Amino acid sequence: MAFRGLSLCLLVGALAGCNNAYEQISVGRWKQVGAGTDLATAVAAGTTQPGSGRTVGAGDLVRVRLHVTVPGKPAIESPDPQADIVWLWIGSEPPAAGGEGSQRAEFGSLGSQDLRNALVGRKLHEKFTLTPGPHDATVWAPSRGFMVFMSQQPLLTDGTATVSPVWPAIDIDGRVADTHVEMEILQICEAKLFRRTAYLQQWGVVFGWGDFKPPSVRAGTLGWSKLEARCPPPAGELTLQVGPLYSGGKRNVDSLYEWRDSYRRLRPPGFFHEEWEAVSLPD
Q1: Taking CA 193 as the corner, what is the angle to CA 192 and CA 195, rounded to the nearest 5 degrees?
Q2: Please, are residues 123 and 53 in contact by the beta-carbon 8 Å criterion?
Q3: Which residues contact 55 (CB under 8 A, 6 or more apart)?
Q4: Percentage of the chain with pLDDT > 70?
Q5: Do the bridges between strand 91-92 and strand 217-230 make them parallel or antiparallel, or are there none, so unpaired?
Q6: Is the pLDDT of residue 42 over 80?
Q7: Distance CA 236, CA 68 (A)
């Protein structure tokens, strides 16, 4: 059966190719979504060093330094001075029809809501500790404003080995007793959340193993999210962006085929740089 599928693929390839014969994409405009929120947090917190100046409020993008302590495990110091820095937005995404997992797959996630809400009301340069409870399970903190499923990471490579993910995140296991997190507020910026979608269509027969009647037309929606922020000098304006992301749901025969390659051909980075710019951060 496998050889038959391969033979059919080779036969079609000789006539029309075993890839997408024709591709088309329609990219929408950015739309502001979500809302700033200052709901109370369920994470226990205590101040260790008071701050001063501006206070964190709804709609702010906050730059935070994290230090996680897990009982019985030695602290690991990273040679990268930015490895323990995260950016957290004090707001909520619009509700998703498919739930949190679907939203993360389509537009990325802003991280754990309780962790972000714990920043509300705290001042610049304030230091405090958090103690996640068992109900928190894993607490997520995105390093660049957004996080995605590992399977969606377009990993950067040096040609021989994986170097780093584009959208890294720090995970904190709240199920481990006495785990606590030290946090320091380094920067507070005004920010807004935006989303954009694109509709990608593909034409061409692509045979899989055992396929006898594969579809000749495939289509799907790609998604982006970004945070546009205004920070006090000298940082100024900055952008945190994630995408494009594709969630085909349950994999089936009419899902997009090699959608990253299609997108790159249709929207090359040299001509559509803003769609490929993952992050613009101050030093």
Answers
A1: 145
A2: yes
A3: 121, 122, 123, 124
A4: 62
A5: unpaired
A6: no
A7: 29
Residue 3 clears pLDDT 90, i.e. is over it: no
pLDDT of residue 118: 85
pLDDT at 197: 92
Say what the pLDDT of residue 72 is: 61
- State mean pLDDT over 153-171: 59
Q: How far is CA 170 from the centre of its chain?
A: 12
Q: Are 185 and 87 in contact (CB under 8 A)?
A: no
Q: Say whether domain 2-280 belongs to CATH 3.10.50.40.
A: yes
- Listed by start position, the domains of the chain span 2-280
pLDDT of residue 256: 84
Rounded to two decimals, what is the model's pTM? 0.78
| 3-class DSSP string for 201-250 | EEECCCCCCCCCCCCCEEEEEEEEEEEEEECCCCCCEEEEEEEEEECCCC
Q: What is the pLDDT of residue 194?
A: 94
Give the number of other Cβ atoms within 10 Å of residue 275's Cβ.
Answer: 18
